[in-house]
Design a protein that fits this description.
It is a single chain. The chain has 306 residues and is α/β, with parallel strands linked by helices. It has 2 domains: 53-136 and 245-297, 3-Layer(aba) Sandwich (D-Maltodextrin-Binding Protein, domain 2); 140-241, D-Maltodextrin-Binding Protein, domain 2 (3-Layer(aba) Sandwich). 43% of the residues lie in helices and 18% in strands. Strands 2-1-3-12-4-13 form a 6-stranded mixed beta sheet, with helices on both faces. Strand 1, helix 2 (63-81) and strand 2 (85-89) form a beta-alpha-beta unit. The chain is globular.
């Protein structure tokens, strides 16, 4: 009934106004100024723009594979927060650390070595960490091609080697620590070495025999070997490091407490939601958990000794 009432109210009002204005002319009053509604500019009331959540992913894998791996997860975060999510990628771990330090981004998926560097420099803060195969740890794999006779890191003396990034734990710090235990450095041990920029590129470099060996993230190698073994099938693991604290999800220490609380809750409860559990299954993560900074002390000790 309310809609019917409103439909007929406006013509009735205009009829009364019209009669009133006509009557004004009969009584000698000054004619009222006529205003055309067509000339009135209507101002739309706009809602405040929703600020996007900017999430950065370190170059642990190449940009294309990063999108494959993280897109569903980022879409899930966007849906749960009600905010659009912008993905930021950079070529080096240091660039992501710098963006976190200047708060140019809100959240970062970073390598373990980059976390230790950022935490010690400006207090980079742990949000959550993934649990994989029941543990919050991962390893550095030393790999060679299947036709390579090397059986250990020692057998790669005088060979060409691939690191990932100067701040990569599994792709640089860990193998350098292994060499330090042998009283060697990358410069004294290898004939030459390169930085590939991502673990999947290091795996490919070994598979194509562009280098004799490489140090890679166990999570990346295992995931690739199960989901797309094109290059892992042409490589073999000859050395496995001690366990390290797994690459975490981090924020700047001055991030708004409410945002940190909201994001932490989304990640920690993701495995309880059917849609979230499906995404986690696809990327081979059991669930996200809270993790203590002390889990990364071994990385610090390895870095100090190298």
């Amino acid at each position: 009934m309310q809609k019917i009432s409103k439909t007929y109210t406006f013509p009735f009002i205009f009829l009364i106004i019209g009669i009133t204005l006509s009557s004004a002319g009969c009584f000698g009053l000054e004619p009222a100024e006529k205003i055309s509604l067509d000339e009135v500019e209507l101002t739309n009331v706009t809602q405040p723009e929703i600020q996007p959540l900017i999430i950065a992913v370190s170059a642990m894998v190449s940009p294309k594979d990063t999108m494959i791996y993280y897109q569903d997860l980022l879409d899930y975060v966007s849906e749960r927060t009600g905010r659009p999510v912008e993905l930021v990628q950079r070529e080096t771990y240091l660039e992501i650390n710098n963006m976190l330090e200047t708060q140019s981004i809100d959240v970062g998926f970073v390598c373990t070595g980059a976390y230790v560097e950022g935490h010690d420099k400006f207090g980079m803060e742990l949000l959550v960490a993934p649990l994989v195969q029941g543990e919050p740890y991962y390893y550095s794999y030393i790999i060679v091609s299947n036709d390579n006779e090397a059986e250990s890191l020692e057998d790669l003396r005088g060979k060409k080697f691939a690191f990932t990034d100067p701040l990569s734990n599994t792709g640089k710090l860990s193998p350098t620590y292994m060499l330090a235990l042998m009283n060697e450095t990358p410069d004294s041990f290898f004939s030459s070495y390169i930085y590939t920029g991502s673990h999947d590129k290091s795996i490919e470099a070994v598979a194509r025999n562009l280098v004799d060996g490489a140090a890679v993230d166990s999570l990346i190698w295992d995931y690739s070997d199960e989901m797309n073994p094109e290059f892992t099938s042409k490589t073999k693991i000859i050395t496995i490091s001690d366990p390290y604290g797994i690459p975490p999800v981090v924020v700047h220490p001055d991030t708004e407490p409410e945002l940190k609380k909201e994001l932490k809750n989304i990640f920690l409860t993701m495995h309880k939601d059917p849609k979230g559990a499906e995404i986690l299954e696809h990327i081979k993560i059991d669930r996200f958990v809270e993790i203590n900074d002390s889990e990364y002390d071994f990385v610090r000790s390895c870095k100090i000794e190298t």
